[in-house]
Amino acid sequence: MSAIKCIGILTSGGDAPGMNAAVRAVTRTAIYNGMTVKGIYRGYKGLITGEIEEFKTQNVSNIIQRGGTILKTARCMEFKTPEGRQQAYENLRKENIDALVTIGGDGTLSGARIFAQEFNVPVVGLPGTIDNDLFGTDVTIGYDTALNTIMECVDKIRDTASSHERLFFIEVMGRDAGFLALNGALASGAEAAIIPEISMEKDQLSEMIEQGLRKSKNSSIVLVAESEVTGGAIGVAERVKKEYPHFDVRVTILGHLQRGGSPSAQDRIMATRMGAAAIDALMEDQRNVMIGIQSEQIVYVPFSKAIRNEKPINRDLLNVLRTTSI
Ligand code: F6P
Predict the structure, then answer these.
(1) Which residue lies with its CA nearest to atom 12 of ligand 1?
(2) Which of 173, 223, 228, 258 to mutate to test the pocket of ligand 1 (most atoms within 8 A of CB)?
(3) Above 60 in pLDDT, residue 17?
(4) Whose CA is nearest to atom 15 of ligand 1?
(5) Which residue from 76, 106, 133, 175 has its CB within 8 A of the most atoms of ligand 1, so it is best to mutate?
(6) Helix axes 179-188, 143-164, angle to 10 degrees
(7) Does position 218 have pLDDT exceeding 80, yes or no?
(8) Between the CA of residue 8 and those of 92, 228, 269, what are the distances in Å?
(9) Cα(271) to centroid of ligand 1, in Å?
(10) Per CATH, the architecture of 143-260 is what?
(11) Could you state, in order of their start, the residue ranges of all structural domains in the chain?
(12) Minimum-distance ligand 1 atom for the alpha carbon of 173
């Protein structure tokens, strides 16, 4: 029998489709194993202000198919201060919460790591972000749904791009990572992807144009990852207008629509497996780890590794993209 009697669960940072499926799986697996579950609203903010409610199995009914997060989310600056974390710890004690499950991206796991170290609280993290930028897991919750959303949007833009014979730069999210742009480009048959990982090393735009972006086609679609390095789709398009004025250029920024929508089957399954694994991990006395999936197997990744290491992008995919878009 685990020493953990009561767990708190929260979602934090940018929301991602599949977070609800994870909340459901964590709640029900914990209750199944005799634990009490407390839902903490608005991420770390709710831990500080004490917005906490006991969750029964019914609280997570009918949510597996819903995007967003029923627990709400926030980016909490106060939790970055020692005073904020102290207040959070006091609320944890007041609510008799023995361990935490936190669902979110890099910032969420970084907060979890400091909190766990400072107050010796067992914390298990679930990777919830559309960016797929956490090291130690093949995929993150929300990534697959966002990719599918991007693919559907690009399919639609292609209709008008080809009718008008235009060059479209479509900006996708990813923070500092190019997973959504590169795999979104492969899935939608785009001509190229401009991603921060490569843009740091070379000028992808001139290379792309010199290699003959429009050898056999009159319209082209290029996915551009949001990035300070390239200036995103607007930055790239401005350069093209100046340096290659013969192109008829348009820009679309997909923005927050990439974060919404009903989660895909893959995200629901992944979130459910990871949510159940979070409770298994706590019962095995694991702490300060992120649940990951590698080659279909659940793995425990220490926070220090998941946050600190840069997840490498598969560069071979750029060649596949180039070859298949001639
Ligand atoms: O981390 C998820 C993400 O959607 C990033 O891709 C993006 O850079 C950021 O969040 C946007 O954050 P916000 O919703 O706070 O503007």
Answers:
(1) 14
(2) 173
(3) yes
(4) 14
(5) 175
(6) 50
(7) no
(8) 8, 36, 22
(9) 20
(10) 3-Layer(aba) Sandwich (3.40)
(11) 6-142+263-308, 143-260
(12) 6
Per-residue confidence (pLDDT) for residue 169, from 0 to 100: 98
Q: Tell how far the Cα of 225 is from the centroid of ligand 1, in angstroms.
A: 12
* 6-142+263-308 is a CATH 3.40.50.450 domain: yes
DSSP H stretches of helix in the chain: 19-32, 44-49, 82-94, 106-119, 143-164, 179-188, 196-199, 204-210, 232-243, 265-283, 303-308, 316-324
The pLDDT value given to residue 2? 73
Residue 1 has pLDDT above 60, yes or no: no
Q: What pTM was estimated for this model as a whole?
A: 0.97
**C-alpha of residue 174 to centroid of ligand 1, in Å:** 8
Domains 6-142+263-308 and 143-260 share a fold: yes
Task: Return the amino acid letter for 62.
Answer: N
Positions annotated as catalytic residues are 131
- Rounded to the nearest angstrom, the distance between the alpha carbon of 119 and the centre of ligand 1 is 29
In one-letter notation, the amino acid at residue 291 is I
Are 111 and 140 in contact, with CB atoms under 8 Å apart?
no
3-class DSSP state of 175: coil
